[in-house]
Design brief:
By secondary structure, this protein is of the alpha/beta class. It contains 16 helices and 16 strands. It has 3 domains: 65 residues, Arc Repressor Mutant, subunit A; 188 residues, Vaccinia Virus protein VP39 (Rossmann fold, 3-Layer(aba) Sandwich), CATH 3.40.50.150; 116 residues. The strands form 2 sheets. A 9-stranded mixed sheet has the order 3-2-1-4-5-7-6-8-9, sandwiched between helices. It has a 7-stranded mixed sheet with strand order 11-12-10-13-16-15-14. A hairpin with a 5-residue loop joins strand 15 and strand 16. Helix 1 crosses helix 3. The longest helix has 14 residues.
């Protein structure tokens, strides 16, 4: 059903209170703030906490004090501005429907690529919130529908693109780890969704296994592994009508400021590639970004950049040649030594601080740091790993500038 036109009435005094205390601790503020009948204190504290969490995540919304934010937990679960803009690059056309509207970050960016867009959300409060915010943002040619996504589809026309972000939390607010337990159950409605739209984009948590997704969906065109500042944020499964899984493309993207590292490969090709192993670490050490590591395409990645593998399970590579445009971190190797007591004492005697990374090694970072008695930080990077012949080594590097 269409959402009511009931507006949010926020006094100027409440708005001023939020502006004045935007950087204050909301918990301490709740204890110290004086009662004032002209200030909706509960609402103000909620807005302060939510806005603080969104400052880096959704900066353009944070900067607009006319927008209203939902409780902090909803802000924590919503997409970032960077990932929303990336999703907007994946689709455009005449008509679009977001079946799980939520806070509306994704919808606000994607809908700008369509002539007509439908925000669908079963929660009435979030629907009202979205209406207010979309009016503030000046979004045009949109319709807000307060009902469940599957109910909306019953009488809906066809679309050029449908977007779904299933909730991974159950009625007790516990995280679900099975795709079929998410809400809505996309496995249950995927057939009707594909009848209604030639393109479907499903946002999932990076905890899901890509190979398992390939087994559960049969119309996959692409899977996007999306990271921000080398932290994996989401998986985007793009389904298309009249497509099977024989020619899937996996796109790895890592966004850091104005830089966007992108690498793509096909799982069908990945299976036929063999690593080019080397027995010793060469001049440069290469660590793929987390999107590539998550994707399962490391052999395609190594082949693309002409890198040598140290071990099939290490996910770090080496070369005597500097590789431009590499999707990850590059280090200059300064020393390589074995993991025996004598070698460790000899090579680490002047190192009191270092950044430690574990790759295919029997100890955790915390365990190794304790064993080596080395504090965190500094300009030295230590990679503990296993070479092709099974030997355990420490690779001492400095980061390439």
């Amino acid at each position: 059903m269409a959402i009511s036109d009931k507006s949010f009435n926020i006094s100027e005094q409440t708005q001023n209170f939020i502006r004045q205390h935007i950087d204050d601790d909301s918990h301490l503020l709740a204890l110290a703030a004086k009662q004032n009948s002209e200030i909706d204190l509960r609402f103000a504290l909620e807005q302060i906490a939510a806005r603080q969490h969104s400052k880096e995540k959704i900066h353009s919304w944070y900067s607009n004090d006319k927008l209203i934010f939902p409780p902090k937990i909803s802000v924590e679960q919503c997409s970032s501005e960077a990932t929303a803009k990336y999703k907007a690059e994946l689709c455009k056309g005449e008509s679009f429907a977001d079946l799980t509207g939520g806070f509306g970050i994704d919808f606000s960016f994607i809908s700008q690529n369509f002539n007509r867009s439908f925000y669908v959300e079963k929660n009435e409060y979030l629907s009202r919130l979205a209406k207010h915010n979309f009016d503030v943002l000046g979004l045009k040619n949109i319709e807000i529908v307060n009902c469940s996504g599957d109910k909306f589809l019953e009488n809906a026309a066809n679309f050029d693109c449908i977007y779904i972000d299933p909730s991974r939390r159950n009625a007790n607010n516990k995280k679900e780890i099975l795709l079929e337990n998410c809400s809505p159950n996309i496995l249950k409605i995927k057939d009707i969704v594909l009848k209604k739209s030639k393109n479907v984009i499903i946002k999932l948590s990076p905890v899901f296994d890509i190979v398992e997704l390939e087994r559960k969906f049969t119309n996959i065109r692409q899977i996007h592994v999306v990271a921000v500042k080398n932290e994996c944020k989401e998986l985007l499964v793009k389904l298309e009508q009249n497509t099977d899984n024989k020619n899937i493309e996996i796109v790895c993207v890592n966004m850091a400021g104005n830089e966007k590292q992108i690498f793509s490969f096909k799982p069908s090709a990945e299976k036929s590639i063999e690593y080019d192993f080397v027995p010793n670490v060469q001049k440069y050490l290469y660590e793929p970004n987390v999107a590539v590591q998550k994707s399962g395409g490391c052999k395609s990645f190594a082949q693309n950049f002409n890198l040598k593998a140290l071990n099939a399970n290490s996910k770090i590579y080496t070369s005597d040649i500097f590789v431009n445009g590499f999707c990850g971190r590059i280090f200059i190797v300064e020393n390589v030594f074995s993991f025996n007591k004598t070698e460790l004492k000899k090579n680490l005697k002047n190192i009191s601080k270092a950044n430690i990374t574990i790759r295919n090694f029997p100890l955790s970072v915390a365990e190794l740091r304790k064993k080596l008695n080395i504090d965190e930080g500094g300009d030295i990077y230590l990679f503990a790993t296993t070479l092709f012949d099974g030997s355990k080594v420490i690779i001492q590097c400095r980061k390439d500038i």
